[in-house]
Design goal:
heterodimer; A: mainly beta; six-stranded mixed β-sheet; 0% helix; B: mainly beta; seven-stranded mixed β-sheet; four-stranded antiparallel β-sheet; 50% strand
Chain lengths: 116, 112
């Protein structure tokens, strides 16, 4: 079974500081994709960053970067220079590239608070 | 470019009533999905479709039905609403392969 675990229900960070959100997953597959989604109070699910498992290089998108450890099945999100607009729920997700479902498996989320 | 549009955004139902949630996407995506989001449980897949005229069950399909008569639309129906179906419902669409999903803005449904 595919599972995604986010062990930090809540995190807080001072504005302009750096925070890391943790995510681990369980799979027997070697080819898959990992994502971080942001859900602000507006409820909209916004794709923040994605990582292909076959790529060793960690993905980056401006202030957002990941630390992908394939052997450890770990996929953490680092937010640098945190801004008030980063306050949201963050969901880690995992997707197999070619199954009948083409499903995205989500973790339970981490609520990030940014302190001014 | 509207992306994925869900209607309605809010709804209150009485137990036993029926309703249909509409999802429309304008990106010509093949795949569409319905999720429900409950506190502390992330998003769980209800039903999905891999193309016009096709549907399949997800993780939590009981109490729901779906239809995909047109490629751009994916309807989620509740035939007899129950309080356990109080949730936020998200529709999403995607291309095949390794892309992320595009989500709608959600429907908050309360069943009393």
């Amino acid at each position: 079974a595919q599972t995604v675990t986010q062990s930090q229900p809540e995190m807080s960070v001072q504005e302009a500081e750096t925070v890391t959100l943790s995510c681990t997953y369980d799979t027997s597959e070697s080819d898959y994709y990992l994502f971080w989604y942001k859900q602000p109070p507006s409820r909209q699910m916004i794709l923040v960053i994605r990582q292909e498992a076959y790529k060793q290089q960690n993905a980056t998108e401006n202030r957002f970067s990941v630390n992908f450890q394939k052997a450890a099945k770990s996929f953490s999100l680092k937010i640098s220079d945190s801004q008030l607009g980063d306050a949201a729920m963050y969901f880690c997700a995992y997707r197999l590239p070619s199954t009948g479902a083409n499903n995205l498996f989500f973790g339970t989320g981490t609520r990030l608070t940014v302190i001014p | 470019n509207a992306g994925v549009t869900q209607t309605p955004k809010f709804r209150v139902l009485k137990t036993g009533q029926s309703m249909t949630l509409l999802c429309a996407q304008d990106m010509n995506h093949e795949y569409m999905y319905w999720y429900r989001q409950d506190p502390g449980m992330g998003l769980r897949l209800i039903h999905y479709s891999v193309g016009e005229g096709t549907t399949a069950k997800g993780e939590v399909p009981d109490g729901y039905n779906v239809s995909r008569l047109k490629k751009q639309n994916f309807l989620l129906g509740l035939e007899s609403a129950a309080p356990s179906q109080t949730s936020v419902y998200f529709c999403a669409s995607s291309e095949t392969g390794n892309y992320g999903y595009t989500f709608g803005s959600g429907t908050r449904l309360t069943v009393v």
